[in-house]
Amino acid sequence: MLYKIRKMTKTFKNRTILNLEQLDIEKGKIYALVGANGAGKTTLLNILSFLDKPHTGQLDFCGEPVLYGNHQLLKLRRKVVLLDQYPILFTGPVWKNIEFGLKVRSIPRAQCKKRVEEVLNLVGMGDFFHAEGHKLSGGETKRVALARALAIEPEVLLCDEPTANVDAENQAIILNILQQINSEQKTSIIFATHYLSQMRRLASHTLTLEHGHLSQQKKENSYTCTVITRKENGLLCYLNDAVSLFFAGNSHPEVEKGTKIHIDPLRISIGKSKNSLAENTLRGVVVKIEQNNTLIRIDMDCGLRIRVVLTKDEYRDLQPQVGEKLQIGIPDEAIEFSP
């Protein structure tokens, strides 16, 4: 396990801004951290990057308790890098900005130059080697800051709103880079975002914070799974003996009678028709719509109650009404089995 958190709290001016009873984060995965402004996302990232410490509770990293001694913190901070939402570049050329972390680690000059060139090419800015850092656009600054973070080859990359205030072209480039380094280098990534589309595209796991607490979404779409047919390419199941779904990929040998299944409401797509929806589609009726901070929760009756979560923009585009019949799509990555 990469991180293990138990009974962690963080307070500020007598107000509890983070209160996590239990959280486990696996190695080599991409986690999206979502929630409204003030939900505690940045506070959690600062703690996970060992730049801040909780007031109470236990934090383990790679199986070892974090005790916050100077020697241990230095060692841990060389494994974990935080890419700030508003990165600052030093005065001078781009290459000096990227070289900084390497020089601190006493990497030889020739090796530094080679590594700087490698990461600049990785982020698509090989021609900016001698460019002045303070003259770059917002998107270019973020990509150079990402290159600076990747230059030291961290085991864990934490990103606070990596595409905020960046044009669409640079957003796509940054997301592709994150996907690439996770796939090729097995870098563990945790990124905070307001964009559910980015979460759905990149993340294998989602953490939702509400007022400093982990959301109880796992209780919202939890059902009992009964196997109908087990095949090499997937599994056909009944949920609550009411609705059948096919889960592709493998035969899921861990699924037995009475196994619980969770469907992540953030990953469910919804529309007027089946076009562009996931393979598992269900037709249902909207029975409830409510707003919670920046997210809209829609309850559907599809033979069983299923909750879907949308952003305000997605809600405005769809304009669903209570009583309206809609289609929902459930992608494989929205599914999680548990005993």
Automatic annotation (TrEMBL):
One of its GO terms (molecular function) is ATP hydrolysis activity. Keywords: ATP-binding, Nucleotide-binding, Sugar transport, Transport. Residues 3-236 form the ABC transporter domain. Signal peptide: none annotated. SUPFAM superfamilies: MOP-like, P-loop containing nucleoside triphosphate hydrolases. This is ATPase component of ABC-type sugar transporter. It comes from Desulfocapsa sulfexigens (strain DSM 10523 / SB164P1). The lineage of its organism: Bacteria, Pseudomonadati, Thermodesulfobacteriota, Desulfobulbia, Desulfobulbales.
